[in-house]
Amino acid sequence: MFKPIAIAKPVDLAPYIDHTLLKPDATPSQIKEICRQAVEHHFASVCVNPIFVKLVATELAGSGVATCSVVGFPLGAAPTAAKVSETRIAVADGAVEIDMVIAVGMLKAGEHDYVRNDIAEIKRATGKGKLKVIIETCLLTNAEKETACRLAKEAGADFVKTSTGFSTGGATVEDIALMRRVVGPEMGVKASGGIRTFDQADAMIKAGATRIGASAGVAMVTAQPATAGHDY
To answer: Which residues constitute the catalytic centre (predicted)?
Structure first.
């Protein structure tokens, strides 16, 4: 039986936040700033596009905050070999967590062996690091969400994750509860996409999330209003 994490006050959320900056126009100076924030607030990780992994690993060295990279982002439509290569480069540059996007179209076509193998190959390339599998819930039926979670678990992934933040919708409490029910208590569940307040994050945690991906992490843990903008 899964027991939700107890979050008594905003600051308690910090160890579960992946502090995220995935905007296409993100600059090195902005990346350094989110690293500084992550260290200050003791977030779980900093999640960035692959081009910035080496910079983030350097900035976070010795801090206890993990370096996270996205792979096959945001469409998931690259061949497995390309995703594997991207993963290996990210790991070599210092990433210890990988957030990959599944082959959504292949899932919807019923090509379950392809999807499972895609995840398994990236898990192998991740090595000792953690693999989070983005299933892009807004594009799936409930049955497809269940299948995606099952395939991720069978492939050895460490987490399932709701969304990229670049598609038609983000995380919902209902989807988190569904994902938790399917994967059981052993796997992580990451809520990402559209989460900008402590109350939203807390609701996701209560539904079964064990990680929150957001660009508004500082606002959440300090109980301040988040600035307007997309959650990536």
So the answer is: 99, 161, 190
